[in-house]
Design goal:
This is ATPase AAA-type core domain-containing protein. GO terms for molecular function: ATP binding; ATP hydrolysis activity. It comes from Ruminobacter amylophilus. InterPro entries: ATPase_AAA_core (IPR003959), P-loop_NTPase (IPR027417). By secondary structure, the protein is α+β, with helices and mostly antiparallel strands. It folds into two domains: 321 residues, Rossmann fold, CATH 3.40.50; 123 residues, no CATH class. It contains ten helices and 21 strands. The protein has a seven-stranded antiparallel sheet with strand order 2-1-6-7-8-9-10.
C-alpha cells in the first residue's frame, strides 16, 4: 500500500513536497483504515485546489516516475518533456528532480526512488531502502556520475552475491534506465533460492501496477472486471441509474477493431499489448492474463492478452430492456462513459492503488458523491486505495470524510505548488468546511481581479 510519495522540481512543484497516506489523530471512520505494525494507513485521499494550482501535476509526477521505471528515459521522452522541471526558477534546469515512493509490503516500509536531470534525460541516483522505526537498512544504491554503487550482502546468498555485484557494476554509469527494472527482468534464476531478494520484484510489481486515470485517457487497464461475466458490473450500472439494462459482447478481429483508427492510437495499443505480454513472459506481474479497455472511434473494445493469445471483443449496450436496439460507447452520455472508466475501482484486487484525476469530470454532483460513498463503504472490508483530485466541494463534509483524507494544493506567489493537509488547520469536526473552503479559509481557491475595474455590483 502507498505510505507516502515525495517529489521535487517537477512542473509546478519546486521544493520537495510530500503526499502522505499515513493517518493522523482522527477519531471518526477508523473502520476504513489499514493497520500496519506501527501506524495506520488511509485508503482514501481527496485533493482540492484551484485551476492551475498543481493538482494534476502531482498525479503527473507519479505517472512520470512509473513511466521512467518501466521504459527508461530514451523511449519515454518527447522533446517537450525535457522542460518538465520547475521552469519559474532559473536554477530549475540545472537541479535534479526527485521522485520517491514509500510502500508498505509484508508489514515493512520500503522507500524506492531516484533523482534525474530531466533536461539532460539522465538518471543521477537510485536507491531502495527498508525504513525502520529506529534504523533504516539500505538494500541498494547507485550514483551514475561517479559510478559508486552498493548492494546489501544480507539480501544475497553466496551463490549469487558475485553475480549481483557484477550486474550492479555494469549498471553503475547507466543513466538512461533504472537498475530495479533491469534486475527483475529476465533474471528468474536470481530469485529461485533466495526469498529475501524477492523484495526487488515486489517493489517493482507494486509500482508498475499503479492505476492512473485521466479524464480523456483512451487506453486504460480493465483487468479488474470479468471479461466474460458482466453481472457485477450490471448491478453497479443499475445502482448508478444509467438506463443500461444489458451489456453485450461479441468477438471481432483486430482489423475490425482498428478500422479507420489513427496510426498513433494503433501504435499506442500495439506497444501496450507488447509491454503487457513481455511483462507476463518476465513473470513479474503474477497474472496469467491482462485485459485492456480501448475507446476506438466511439466503440468500446476489450483486448484480452493471455501469452501469445490476443482476443478482441466489442462491447455495446441495451437500454430499458429493449433488446433489438444496441448502443455503442460513443452513443452513451459523457457521464456514463466516465462512469464506465471509474467502476473498475469498485471491483479492484486487494492492495490496488487507483489515482483518478478530476473525478467529477462529466459527472452529476450526486453521482460523484454516491461514487465516493460507495468506495468508502467497500474500503471498510477491502484493502484498496483511491486518491482523487476534484472540484466537488460537497465532498468537503466531515461526516463523510476524515480530516486527514483531505488535502489542498495551493499556488504560492512564486508560482510553485504546495501540498497542504487539511488536518493542520485543526478545525472542529462539526464545522461546515465546504463553505469555509469556498470563502478562501484554507487557500487553494482562485483569486479574481475584475475584468472591468470600473464595474461595481448593482450597476447596470
Amino acid at each position: 500500500m502507498l505510505v507516502r510519495f515525495n517529489v521535487g522540481n517537477f512542473c509546478s512543484i519546486s521544493d520537495n513536497q510530500s503526499f502522505s497516506m499515513i493517518s493522523g489523530n482522527v477519531k471518526n471512520h477508523k473502520d476504513r483504515l489499514y493497520s500496519a505494525k506501527d501506524f495506520k494507513i488511509l485508503k482514501f485521499a481527496s485533493i482540492f485546489g484551484a485551476n492551475a494550482s498543481g493538482k494534476s501535476n502531482l498525479i503527473k509526477a507519479i505517472h512520470y516516475a512509473v513511466t521512467i521505471l518501466l521504459q527508461g528515459t530514451e523511449n519515454s521522452f518527447a522533446d517537450s518533456n525535457r522542460n518538465n522541471y520547475f521552469r519559474l526558477n532559473p536554477s530549475g534546469k540545472d537541479r535534479n528532480s526527485y521522485f520517491e515512493f514509500e510502500i508498505l509490503i509484508n508489514d515493512s516500509v520500503y522507500a524506492y526512488g531516484f533523482e534525474i536531470s530531466i533536461f539532460e534525460k539522465k538518471i543521477k541516483e537510485e536507491w531502495l531502502i527498508r525504513l525502520g522505526k529506529n534504523e533504516d537498512e539500505t538494500i541498494f544504491t547507485r550514483k551514475t556520475d561517479d559510478g559508486t554503487s552498493y548492494f546489501n550482502d544480507n539480501y544475497l546468498n553466496s551463490d549469487i552475491a558475485g553475480r549481483m555485484n557484477i550486474y550492479l557494476d555494469d549498471y553503475s554509469h547507466v543513466y538512461y534506465k533504472l537498475f530495479l527494472k533491469e534486475i527483475v527482468s529476465n533474471k528468474a534464476e536470481l530469485y529461485k533460492n533466495d526469498g529475501k531478494l524477492g523484495i526487488l520484484r515486489e517493489v517493482y510489481n507494486w509500482i508498475s501496477n499503479i492505476n492512473i486515470l485521466y479524464p480523456n485517457t483512451p487506453v486504460t487497464g480493465y483487468d479488474t472486471l470479468s471479461f466474460d461475466n458482466f453481472s457485477d458490473l450490471m448491478k453497479a450500472l443499475t445502482s448508478f441509474d444509467t438506463g443500461i439494462s444489458k451489456i453485450i459482447s461479441h468477438e471481432i478481429s483486430k482489423e475490425q477493431a482498428f478500422d479507420k483508427v489513427s496510426y498513433r492510437l494503433r501504435d499506442d495499443v500495439d506497444k501496450t499489448i507488447e509491454f503487457l505480454g513481455r511483462q507476463r513472459t518476465e513473470a513479474l506481474s503474477g497474472r496469467d492474463s491482462r485485459v485492456l479497455r480501448v475507446n476506438i472511434n466511439g466503440n468500446l473494445i476489450l483486448i484480452s492478452i493471455n501469452g501469445d493469445e490476443i482476443k478482441f471483443k466489442e462491447i455495446c449496450f441495451e437500454h430499458f430492456g429493449v433488446s433489438d436496439v444496441k448502443f455503442s460507447l460513443g452513443e452513451e452520455s459523457d457521464g456514463t462513459r466516465r462512469l464506465l472508466d471509474l467502476l473498475s475501482v469498485l471491483f479492484a484486487e486487494e492492495n490496488s492503488l487507483f489515482i483518478i484525476d478530476e473525478l467529477d469530470r462529466s459527472l452529476h454532483p450526486q453521482l460523484t458523491l454516491y461514487f465516493v460513498k460507495t468506495f468508502l463503504r467497500i474500503a471498510r472490508k477491502n484493502n484498496i486505495q483511491l486518491v482523487i483530485t476534484t472540484h466537488e466541494s460537497r465532498l468537503l463534509n466531515l461526516n463523510l470524510l476524515r480530516q486527514d483524507e483531505i488535502y489542498f494544493i495551493d499556488r504560492k506567489e512564486n508560482g510553485a505548488s504546495a501540498i497542504v493537509p487539511f488536518d493542520c488547520f485543526k478545525e472542529r469536526f462539526d464545522k461546515r468546511i465546504d463553505v469555509a473552503y469556498l470563502d478562501g479559509r484554507y487557500g487553494a481557491v482562485p483569486l479574481f481581479d475584475s475584468i472591468y475595474p470600473d464595474y461595481e455590483d448593482g450597476e447596470d
